[in-house]
Write a structure and sequence with these properties.
single chain, 2 domains, two-stranded antiparallel ribbon
Length: 210
């Protein structure tokens, strides 16, 4: 899945020829073998599941650009070819089984991390904070009850958001499987379906709104 869009350039300049351009390319990778290869620098040091962009090896960038030429539309591949210093990051799902301990509460990405397909990172963090503030305000002096309410309400929502993101992104991971072995959400949806699903407002999704 490739997303690309123009953004303001330096000093927020939006004039033609002065704007910047972002692209995001979601690709499946193997966590055991391929990800360590991608995150290993020229000196042979593996940096774990991420690597500072200047340390990305030339052969990794060359493969990235060759894949773009082979897999993407020529217009998008041309944009990729202009990038001298790409960077990447691994995407993981995170679900917390508990959001509050004593006087400590987890919010935002510290509590749940959903794949970007749902576009809920900032929104969910703000709603977490709103729920926590409301629970404290309405609990009087019973902080334990407020945190228990926050834990109960936002853990349910966070789980639904992660499940929704996994559903929308399942077809990307499944590209490593033979087509005949893919089922349900692992089969790539038609473009119009994908755009409609990703563009849906969270409040209208039964998986999230409950």
């Amino acid at each position: 899945m490739m997303l690309s869009y123009p953004v303001p350039g330096r000093d927020n300049d939006t004039r033609p020829g002065r704007r910047g351009y972002n692209f995001i390319w979601y690709r499946p990778t193997d966590e055991r073998d391929e990800l360590p290869w991608l995150c290993t620098d020229a000196a042979g040091r593996c940096h774990g599941t991420a690597i500072p962009p200047p340390l990305i090896r030339p052969e990794v960038i060359a493969r990235f650009q060759a894949d773009a030429q082979a897999l993407l539309a020529p217009q998008i591949a041309g944009i990729v070819a202009r990038i001298a210093q790409p960077f990447f990051q691994a995407i993981f799902d995170l679900q917390s089984s508990q959001l509050a301990w004593g006087r400590v509460a987890l919010l935002g990405d510290a509590a749940f991390v959903a794949r970007p397909h749902v576009g809920m990172g900032v929104t969910k963090a703000a709603l977490d904070a709103e729920c926590l503030a409301r629970a404290i305000q309405e609990s009087g002096s019973d902080l334990d009850a407020a945190l228990a309410r926050y834990d109960r309400e936002r853990r349910q929502v966070g789980s639904r958001i992660v499940a929704r993101a996994q559903q929308l992104g399942a077809y990307i991971e499944a590209r490593r499987k033979p087509l005949a072995a893919r089922s349900g959400h692992e089969r790539q949806p038609p473009p119009e379906t994908l755009m409609r699903e990703i563009g849906s407002m969270a409040v209208n999704l039964k998986e999230i709104a409950g």
